[in-house]
Amino acid sequence: MTHATLAAELFLLLTNDAGRQNATMVRRPALNAAALLDLELRERITVGEGRNPRLEVRDRTAPGDPALDAALAFLAGQRSAKTYQTITHHKLDLTGPLGEQAELAGSVVRKDGWFTTSWPVADPGIEQDLRNRLAAAIADPGLASRQDAYLLELLRALRVEHRVLKDEAAPLGRRELARVVEDVSTGHPVTRNLHTAMQAVATTATSASF
Hints:
The chain is 57% helix and 6% strand.
């Protein structure tokens, strides 16, 4: 059993050893989506149904986690929050708080550059423990916890599950891993909206290339 948040664990998976975004250039909305799931699990918010469900703040009590506290405060300050708009909102960026948490845990160190901050690995064992857990869930989906299922579903929404977990999934190929992840996925509205956001990013990038 893990006490880490989904957002904290996803930060490790989407940050390479050099401390930059790994496998995807859209780490920020992915972390936002993970935080929404964390807040729902802690009964701070309710996520509705539909293509772009509303988010209702049920309890404004800060969870006591810097990243989740920031996400909850952001939602509490919105007149009407919807899932897609929250995931993609430019003012909601949990990268810093999550990086600082990871630094306190000893897994990364902060490195400030001229224009950006990176979080190079300090103790690879912390992320490796997470990867070992996910490897076990992939090998036997019946062992997957809800946390494992959500993490795999978030990676699937980004379409990077095989790229991020290639070693942990071996000998499974991309399609076989996709089927395993689909079997444990919950089809949660937040992950569906994250997938929609990623499709929009891909479409914009493709259009810009012409």
